[in-house]
């Protein structure tokens, strides 16, 4: 039976809520906000040194909130910010070793959630069945 768009939207919101709950277990340990944790994950990608502007474009956070979060992360020794050589108005955000360690811990916490989810899907469970399982086992 084909599910409606609204049903899949509900599943998506539910999964997002569960992921944020997993992120919060690490965030609370280090006294980080949800934005701080999302920033650490975003800036831990090794493709290049992204800027705060790139993070704002990918997410739902206003630049002023991102700027405050990066300042807090910098004060905690989790990131450094270096002006770009080409355009000094932009700063590359680089995770420190401590920041990389926390970002990896967050990634592992999320993976601990996704691996079982994928296993259930491979076994043929439907999304609504998986959500019921995860509501009891993973929250």
SSE map:
Elements: H1 5-30, H2 34-43, H3 52-58, H4 63-75, E1 79-83, E2 91-95, H5 97-122, H6 127-137
Antiparallel strand pairs: 1-2
The CATH architecture category equals Orthogonal Bundle
Helix content: 55-70%
Please compute the radius of gyration using only Cα atoms: 18 Å
Number of strands: 2
Whole-number mean pLDDT: 85
Low-pLDDT ranges = none
Can you summarize the main beta sheet?
2 strands, antiparallel
Keywords, please?
single chain, 139 residues, mainly alpha, Arc Repressor Mutant, subunit A, two-stranded antiparallel ribbon, 67% helix, elongated
Write up what this structure looks like.
The chain has a single domain, classed as Winged helix-like DNA-binding domain superfamily/Winged helix DNA-binding domain (Arc Repressor Mutant, subunit A). The protein contains six helices and two strands, in the order H-H-H-H-E-E-H-H. The protein has a two-stranded antiparallel sheet. Helix 1 runs antiparallel to helix 5, helix 1 runs parallel beside helix 6 and helix 3 crosses helix 4. The longest helix is centred in the N-terminal third of the chain and has 26 residues.
């Amino acid at each position: 039976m084909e599910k409606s768009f609204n049903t899949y939207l509900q599943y998506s919101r539910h999964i997002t809520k569960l992921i944020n709950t997993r992120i919060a277990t690490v965030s609370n340990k280090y006294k980080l906000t949800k934005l701080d944790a999302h920033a650490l994950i975003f800036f831990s990608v090794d493709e290049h040194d992204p800027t705060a502007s790139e993070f704002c474009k990918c997410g739902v956070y206003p630049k002023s909130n991102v700027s405050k979060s990066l300042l807090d992360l910098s004060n905690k020794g989790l990131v450094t910010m270096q002006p770009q050589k080409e355009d000094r108005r932009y700063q590359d955000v680089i995770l420190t070793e401590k920041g990389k360690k926390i970002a990896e811990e967050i990634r592992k916490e999320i993976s601990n959630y996704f691996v079982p989810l994928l296993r259930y899907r491979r076994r043929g469970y439907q999304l609504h069945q998986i959500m019921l399982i995860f509501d009891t086992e993973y929250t």
